[in-house]
Amino acid sequence: AWNLDGRTLAAASFDYTTTVWKASKDDPTKYSFVTWLSGHESEVKHVAWSPDGTKLASCSRDKSIIIYEPQERNDFEYDTHGVLNGHSQDVKMIKFNSKLNLLFSSSYDDTIRSWRFDEAVDDWLQNYTMKGHKSTVWAFDFDASEQFLVSVSEDKELLIWMIGDKQHKCCGRIISPHTWSIYSVSWSKKGNYIATGGGDNKVYVYEINWDSLFSEEGEFEYIVVAETDNENGHINDVNCV
């Protein structure tokens, strides 16, 4: 994951650590190792920087999320800003929402959760739990406005959520053509397209009817507009789109 500065890179690993790297100001093609970030007790699944670049979050198979913060006078040293516990199983993915100033996470416990830093108690608190999937939530993404979130799961469904400051509402469901788990999802930042990749070696692209997301009657509309074919497609799991 890239920091906002465009020079700092964080990487998550099965060796239980996150590493940070920084490009040289004089030669942006040369990177130097900054530090190892420890604290997790199992595989680190994902990392994400806060929109302002001042926080780095990591999530792990140990069911926790750790928030790190570079020291103000020394960006080669990081302090632990918070340890978030609430998921009952592996945390698969994390991502900050810049509009709401929330951190979102998805898990093997079939839920998505949002987290907020509460200045009154100087700690990260769970904001809301989103329940709707029937199995592991592997991934999620925001639309361009960051008012909506799409999540994908072992249950081969996509859920569309309208996200707010305190509460998040499911406003659409796509029963996908995937015949195996959906491992990855990406919401286009132009147009109303969502792409998914799955364990059935397939990639699908859906076009959603934007107006239907705001329908009071709950009539959500979408069509499948593209898919990989057997001749030119992948021959094994698609883990990322």
Number of strands: 19
Shape: globular
Report how far the terminal alpha carbons are from each other: 15 Å
**SSE topology string:** EEEEEEEEEEEEEEEEEEE
Structural account:
The chain is mostly beta strands and 241 residues long. It contains no helices and 19 strands. The strands form 5 sheets. Strands 4-5-6-7 form a 4-stranded antiparallel β-sheet, with no helix packed on it. A hairpin with a 4-residue loop joins strand 14 and strand 15. It starts with 7 loop residues before the first strand and ends in a 14-residue tail after the last strand. The model has no long low-confidence stretch (mean pLDDT 94).
Which descriptors apply to this entry?
mainly beta, 4-stranded antiparallel beta sheet, globular
Topology:
Layout: E1 8-12, E2 18-23, E3 31-37, E4 44-49, E5 56-60, E6 64-71, E7 74-85, E8 91-97, E9 102-107, E10 111-118, E11 123-131, E12 137-142, E13 148-153, E14 157-163, E15 168-175, E16 182-187, E17 193-198, E18 203-208, E19 222-227
Antiparallel strand pairs: 1-2, 2-3, 4-5, 5-6, 6-7, 8-9, 9-10, 10-11, 12-13, 13-14, 14-15, 16-17, 17-18, 18-19
